[in-house]
Predict the 3D structure of the following.
Amino acid sequence: MKEIKRIGVLTSGGDAPGMNAAIRAVARTASYYNIDCLGVRRGYNGLINGDVTELDARSVNGIISSGGTILYTARCPEFLTEEGMKKAVCTCRYLGIDGIIAIGGDGTFRGAKDLAEQGIPTIGVPATIDNDIASTHYSIGFDTACNTALDAIDKLRDTMQSHQRCSVVEVMGRHAGHLALYVGIACGAQAILVPEKTLDFDKDVIEKIRDGIINKRSHYIIIVAEGVGNAIEVAERVASQTGIDTRITILGHIQRGGTPTARDRVMASRMGEFAVRTLLEGKTNRVVCSVNSELIDIDIAEALAMKKNLHEKMYETSKIMAV
Ligand code: F6P
């Protein structure tokens, strides 16, 4: 096993609040163990082009509280080609990078696995607002995204209440409904539409609003996960079937920005540190996972093969809360 003297850290795929805190944790842990740390810019592009910057303990001062990623991020089609991979491996060898910490989601981990297969040790750190990585209960950025969405919905509630309207709010999550479920419970939504579940629209949405009208309810909030793919249609159906004045809000990329919450900063710090230690233990092709609040590492291929289900009990709770 080759001694690790210099590591690289990169962020790839969609950014997530807390990525900077994770970069900081990697740089500080490297410094603690007296190894060099290079920040690789624009995800795997930076490995292909040799676009790196030195990170020491002090150069990451003050970034724990900032959203986005100081290393920039990108999706990198060239990295999927044999040529691109060869260039990335050459860069690692040329710059003396003995291991890579890759911060991101499933796509990032696929890249890390490919790199590990070419002999470059890699460790993945989960960061995505979608929280859809099956091997870990938690991914960096999820808590901040939930709170950002909630903040916006609380504001929407004020105006919906004043006008006695229905607000249909689309939240991100790609193909998964985890973000929608959390946000929906936390804002007291009347209905939560997620791709993992089929609702009886007339019973679970329309009838509830009609009941609300009879009981003089002042407003309604319906959360639609983007993976459901029909927020506009939902709003149109609600308006035409209930007569309630309805407005649609697509929260979009606002959910990816902002100051990370305490939870995201702490998780990012723990996961970044754990990733460096895992690399120093001589492990490769592993992803850091939070399981019942403890950190463990799992083989990336195994992690990628796992399927994440929606939290059943939480979904039941959401339905009971919306009676
Ligand atoms: O994976 C994070 C995410 O924000 C998803 O929720 C969303 O579907 C997607 O990225 C948007 O990607 P882009 O930034 O390329 O528009």
